[in-house]
C-alpha cells in the first residue's frame, strides 16, 4: 500500500486536506494523525472491519482495547451507557485534553474496539488537527498510538513513517506533539475512580477535583489487568534498558561512570539518557562509543516527557548495545515519565549497592 503524507499547519490545518483525510477514514481506511499527546492511528470506530485494520497494521494483540476519540463532549452520549457526575466534572475541567475516561459502553460499540469488555475508553483531544479530522469524519475515531506494538509511541510524523509506511493509507503530519506521552487513563466504571495509566493530566490534578483516586499497580503477565494494555512490554528500544536509581545525584553519577567504563571496556556501545545536569557532568570526560542524550533539566519533567520517546528511538538508531536511563522525580508528569521508563526497561533497575560481581547479568 502506498502511504500518503498530508503536511498541515498544526494550528490551522487546511480544511481541504482535512476533508480528504477524513474521506479515507469514512471509507474504512486507517490514517495516522497528531494529537497533543502522541500520534494516533485512527479508523472509523463504528466500523469493525476498519478497526481490525488498526490491529493488523500495528501487530497489536486483539485483547488490548482502543480509545474512541470524539470532537465534542456531546458525542459521549452516543458511546457510553451512563455519564456519572464525576465524569461530567472531569469533562468540564480537562476536556479537550490528555484525559481518557473508561465508562460502561453502549451495545452498538463494536467489540473489536473494546476487546470484548463491557466498558469503553473515550477521549476528546485538544490538538487542532485531531479535532478537525474527527469532526470532519463525523464518527468516533478509534485510535491507539501509531507505532508498531511494543515500540516507543510516535511523537513526530517521521516516527509513524518508520513503523507504518506501506501499511496504512495516510499520515497527517502536524509536526511534533506537545506533551509527548500518552493520555492519562482513568476508569470511572466502578465505585472508586481508578487511575489505570498516568499521563498528561496528573494524579494531583485528578485528586484535586475527585478526592480519592486508586492507582493501578504493576501487573504480572498471568494476571487479568484492569487495563489490558498494562500487561505488555511497551515503549521498548531494541537494546536492553536499565534504570539507574540512586539516592543522590553524586551517587547516580559515580554509578553511571562505573557502568559506562565497564561496558566500554568490553567494546560495547553504551547510551546514557539522563538529565541535562548529569549529561553535562558525564561529558567532562571524552569517551568514544558513549552516546549521551539529555532529557532536559532535572526541574522540568514536562520537557523529559516531550523528549523521552524520540530519544529512545534515537539511541536505537545510534546502535546502542545497552542503555542506562537516570530515574526522574515522580512529582507531576514525572510519574508518567517514570511509568514509561519502567515499561521500556521491563522493570530492570540498578541501585548503587551491589558489587559488580553481584549485579544481575546484563545479557539481552
Ligand atoms: O494519548 C493517548 O491516549 C493516545 C492518543 C492517540 O490518543 N492513544 C493511546 O492509545 O495511547 P493506546 O491504545 O496506545 O493506549 C490505550 C490504553 C491501553 O493501555 C488500553 O489497554 C487502555 O487504554 N484501554 C482502552 N480501553 C480500555 C477499557 N475499556 N478498559 C480499560 N483500559 C482500556
Ligand atoms: Mg500505545
Topology at a glance:
Blueprint: E1 4-7, H1 15-26, E2 31-33, E3 40-44, H2 48-58, E4 67-69, H3 85-94, E5 99-104, H4 111-114, E6 119-123, H5 128-137, E7 141-142, H6 157-164, E8 170-173, E9 184-187, E10 194-197, H7 203-210, E11 214-215, E12 241-244, H8 249-265, E13 270-274, H9 276-283, E14 290-294, H10 301-317, E15 322-326, H11 334-344, E16 349-350
Parallel strand pairs: 1-8, 2-8, 4-6, 5-9, 10-11, 12-15, 12-16, 13-14, 13-15
Antiparallel strand pairs: 2-3, 3-7, 4-7, 5-6, 9-10
Helix pairs in contact: 1-5
The protein binds threonylcarbamoyladenylate and magnesium ion.
Report on the architecture of this protein.
By secondary structure, the chain is an alpha/beta fold. It has 2 domains: 4-215, DHBP synthase (Alpha-Beta Complex); 241-358, Rossmann fold. 32% of the residues lie in helices and 17% in strands. It contains 11 helices and 16 strands. Strands 1-8-2-3-7-4-6-5-9-10-11 form an 11-stranded mixed beta sheet, with helices on both faces. Strands 14-13-15-12-16 form a 5-stranded parallel beta sheet, with helices on both faces. Strand 13 (270-274), helix 9 (276-283) and strand 14 form a beta-alpha-beta unit. Helix 1 crosses helix 5 (128-137). Threonylcarbamoyladenylate binds at residues 35, 37-38, 40, 64-67, 98, 100, 102, 114, 117, 119-121, 123, 143-145, 182-183, 185, 196-197, 227-229. Threonylcarbamoyladenylate binds next to strand 5, strand 6 and strand 10.
